[in-house]
Amino acid sequence: MELRTIKTFHTIVQSGSFYKAAEILNYSQPTISMRIKQLEQDVGAQLFERGKKLKLTRAGRLFHERAGQLLAQYEVLDHTLADIRQGQAGLIQIGISEPTASLIFPAVLRGFLHDYPDMSVNVSVDDANTCSRKLLEGAIDFAVCGEPELILENYFDPFFHDSLNVIVSDRHPLADKASVNLEDLENECLIFTPANCPIRIQIEQHLQRAIGSRYRKMELTSSMAHQYYVRENIGVSIFTATAHSEPIEGTKVIPINNLTISPPVGLLTNQKEEHFDCATKDLISRIIGRFQRDPH
């Protein structure tokens, strides 16, 4: 049973005659008659009463009702497919690391979905290495994260470099300082991200050079949770300025004078960007633009 045959039947009923349907569809009358004959064979029932006046059989009335629903659904599907081809509809699956996932991306996504109401976006919040693995597995289309461990198939293109501050409780002795040096963190408890985090490794290398091993460690895997532990004066945390752009009450963010690390944030893909559809390209552009304007 072909869709064009169903459309022919529906047009006959709507127009009231085979002749008018032939004019509307730009078919010859023999073609119209042949299609209806084929449709009745496919259905296994007579759809029109034979006679001078066009009249549907009981089976014809039921088929007309269902055919109208089917054609309406097909029209919606056809428009959806057209939107997908033009990059106006579909699903984008993104991997994003903190703090971008919590502090920057929601506002970007709100504007994007307003302009692309037929697009769906799924977000996986993961560290850079997990984003890289998911990208390799095809679970996400691209990621916005720090620089992961190198994988031949994936490409990391940094578009922003952050700075590092220390966050302390407002009850901590360092809270009165306008800035600190790494030497001021001697004997402090440092709250760190996991040991395989590239930024943590760099921070500890600088600490080793400045104060040796004269500091204590606590590992807290959720980077956005650090400030809440700091607020309770459990320890201090060295983290990006972006992550500390909205410090919670009871904490203070202090610049570090002699820590020259600029953690990158970038686009992680395993295909060239020109292969993305126009909506995905626009979303990527909005994310990068948000960082370039003022991530803090």
UniProtKB/TrEMBL annotation:
GO terms for cellular component: cytosol. This is LysR family transcriptional regulator. Keywords: DNA-binding, Transcription, Transcription regulation. Transmembrane segments: none annotated. CDD domains: PBP2_LTTR_substrate (cd05466). Residues 1-57 form the HTH lysR-type domain. Gene3D superfamilies: 3.40.190.290, Winged helix-like DNA-binding domain superfamily/Winged helix DNA-binding domain. It comes from Bacillus amyloliquefaciens (Bacillus velezensis). Belongs to the LysR transcriptional regulatory family. One of its GO terms (molecular function) is DNA binding. It comes from the Bacteria. The keyword Cell inner membrane does not apply.
